[in-house]
Structure formats: structure tokens, C-alpha cells
Amino acid sequence: MTVIQQVSIRFSELGGKKFEMGDEIVFTHGLVDIHSHGRDNNQLLGDGMTDILSHSVRQFGTVLLMPNLADKDALMTPEMAIAYHDRATKATGGEINILVTVYLNTDLTEDHIKMISEDSRIAGIKSYPAHGTTNSEHGLRTPLEAHKQLEWMQKYKVPLLVHGQVRTDDDGDVMDEWDREPYFYEEVAPELDRLYPELPISYEHLSTGVGAQAVIDRTGPTQGTYTSFHLGYTRTDAMDIGVRTDMVGKPMAQHAREKPKLWDALSAHPHLFALGSDDAWHPMRADHPIASKHAQNCACGWVHGPYRVGSYLDLFEKHNALHLFGQFASVNAARFYGFQVPDKTIRLRKMNYRVVDQLQFGNYSAQPLNAGEDRVGWCLVD
Ligand SMILES: [Zn+2]
To answer: Are 344 and 60 in contact, with CB atoms under 8 Å apart?
Structure first.
């Protein structure tokens, strides 16, 4: 059995190894999930946030939680985001660093944005396409509608995090799902560059070549995040013999021609892309207001839980990119947002394992991606 222990911060020594079953990798610099969802502990959900974040505590040193919560919980102000930060930190027992984001909206004032720039708990402001994904009713058609806020964000160097899809075209008609990301990167991103060239931007969960290219082409501070889902699956996987609800999420899985473009962009520009799993739980039962993951109009979002780091490692090994993993999974996001790479040791073993059928989710349960499947790959061990 070989055990590869991290030495350099980028862990480039991980590359060039041929791993056998039973081999282990030990990370001693903490990994960062720079895009995940925490939900909230409340009367209806119970300790759902504690359950979700318990998996972050086991795998990561820092996680950035997104703000797409329902209605009054949507984190529309820095005060709401700080309160959410404190609830999330409490739910983890203070064991990892939590970062949060405010929901981009046109009621944010210059004082709000200055306050965000001075508070290290808030990483930036997240833009969602209106009605384009779960609980995004407060989103804008494009972030360009918040022009005052973007000006202030550029002035105070507050990062804009973007769900880069547009749901409706210029006439207000709903666009084809697979045109929505290209439309954003062809029509909206160039305008953001032209109007706010120095605004720090993180383009989230990129699923297309045109999206990855926008990160490469931009001259202002920019990062792109990749989910293991878009790095690993295509729309054929999701819809080959019936639609797999565990694979439904936004952006949807793409045409097979897009996946190699994501990998090409990552290997040519490894300093620009970061790990953002978009782990986003929904309960299995249909009687919950967060909607159900496995129902008619099933909720969008992937449930990775304990399998987040392992699923990326499997893919990086398959694509001969393990030498880039440490940079992707901790260094890049820390540099972009200006925080220290956390200290945290985790151990993974290459092994046979079965994905659990259900994960505890407060008063409910959630079903992970590939639930019940026997798999061979990297799995977290204590
Ligand atoms: Zn998300």
C-alpha cells in the first residue's frame, strides 16, 4: 500500500503516480468547497443544516455557502448574511471556516456594499437568473440590471459571483435550457467586462466551453468554478434510458462535446479554476416547501454529501490531472478571495464502496447522486 502525503501547498507531487486499490492520499492543507449550499436549521427542516455541514466538516477546511434560500430567508442584506454565517458556524461547532454571500438585488445600498467589503465573513454577492433555478424568485434577468450595485462593488472590490445563465431572451420568451449559458457568456459577460473591467468576478459551475473561455479571456480578476458533475457527466448520462432525477440540476448536464473543453481550459490555465461542488440538498418527500428531489417538477440540485472530494479525485485521476488537484481544490479560491489556505488533514483510500441509499437531512432524508451504486474510487476514511 502506498500512502502519498501532501508536502507542497499545491500538492503537485500527487501527479505522475499510478495508484492501486488500497493506496491512500493524505491532504494536510485544507481543501475548500467554494460553492455549496447550507440550508438552515428550523422548525420544519429540523437539524438539516447540521446534517449537511457535518459532511463539509469531514472533508473541507473552508466552505462558501450560497444564499438561495426561500422568501424571507434569501439573505438580501449583509446583516442577514452575517446572521446566517453565525447559524452555520454554530451548526458546525466552529470546526471549519464558513463564508457566506449576499443575494444580488437592487435594494443594496453603497453602505451595504462597503460593509460587505470590510467583513471577512462575507465573500461577495451572488447573482441568480430570475426563476432560473431553485428559489431564485428574487434574482434579476441578468446582473446588469443592478448597475449601481455593480459600480459600488467595483469601487470596493467586492466579488460578484454569477450563476451564468439567462432564462428569458430579449423578447421575454423562455429560452431553451442549453442556450442559456452560451447566451450569458456571449451577450452578458462581455458587457460586464466593458462596464466593470476591474470588478472581481467568479463564474460559477461552468458547464460549457464558451463559459470557461470567458474566464480565460477576461483581464480583470476572475475565477471559474467547476462541479464534479459537469466535469464527469453529460446529458446522455442524465437522460439515456429515462431521466435521472439525481442528475437534475442547473445548468443541466451538457452535450458530450462540452466536457473536454472544461478539462482543456483547466489544464491550460490551472490557476483560474476552483472546486465548487454545488452540493445542494432537497428532501426526498414531496410535502416539503423546499420541494422534493424525486417528484414531478423535481427540484434542481446535486446531493454529493460525503462523496464530494472523492468524486473530484476520481475524475482528476482519470484525466491525468492529479498534479493540478491541490491548486484547484484549495489554493486558487483562497487566492481569489484573499483568505489563508486552511489547516486540515483528511485521508482518502482507493477502494470498493457502495454509495448509501439515503442521507439524514433533519426531519427528512436526501438521496445522494448514484445512490445505492457499487463504485471503485477514492473514498474518505477516518
Ligand atoms: Zn449553487
So the answer is: yes
| Euclidean distance between CA atoms 31 and 334, whole angstroms | 10
CATH code of 31-342, in short, is 3.20.20.140
| Cβ neighbours around 177 below 10 Å, total | 15
DSSP 41: -
pLDDT, residue 186, reads 97
Neighbouring C-beta atoms of residue 94, cutoff 10 Å: 10
Q: What is the pLDDT of residues 75-131, one digit of tens each?
A: 999 999 999 999 999 999 999 999 999 999 999 999 999 999 999 999 999 998 876
Burial of 187 (0-12, 13-18, 19+ CB in 10 A): middle
Dmax (CA) for the chain in angstroms is 61
**What are the extents of the domains in the chain?**
31-342
How close is the Cα of 277 to the center of ligand 1, in Å?
Answer: 8
For residue 163, how far is its CA from the centre of ligand 1 (angstroms)? 8
Is residue 159 a contact partner of residue 337, using CB atoms and an 8 Å limit? yes
Query: What integer pLDDT is reported at residue 68 of this predicted model?
Result: 60
Beta bridge mates, 122: 100
Ranges under pLDDT 70 in the chain: 68-73, 131-139, 286-291
How far is ligand 1, taken at its centre, from the CA of residue 107, in Å?
22
Instruction: Name the amino acid, one letter, at 131.
Output: H
15, exposed or middle or buried, with CB in 10 Å at 0-12, 13-18, 19+? middle
Tell me which residues have their CB within 5 A of the ion that is ligand 1: 66, 278
The whole-number pLDDT of residue 286 equals 61
Ligand 1 geometric centre to CA of 172 (Å): 24
pTM of the model: 0.95
130 alpha carbon – ligand 1 mean position (Å): 14
pLDDT at residue 290, rounded to an integer: 61
Q: What is the pLDDT of residue 132?
A: 60
- Distance in Å, CA 70 to ligand 1 centroid: 14
Distance 5 CA to ligand 1 centre (A): 31
145: three-class secondary structure by DSSP = helix
The 3-class SS string of 93-125 reads CCCCEEEEEEECCCCCCHHHHHHHHHCCCEEEE
pLDDT recorded at residue 95? 96
SS3 349: strand
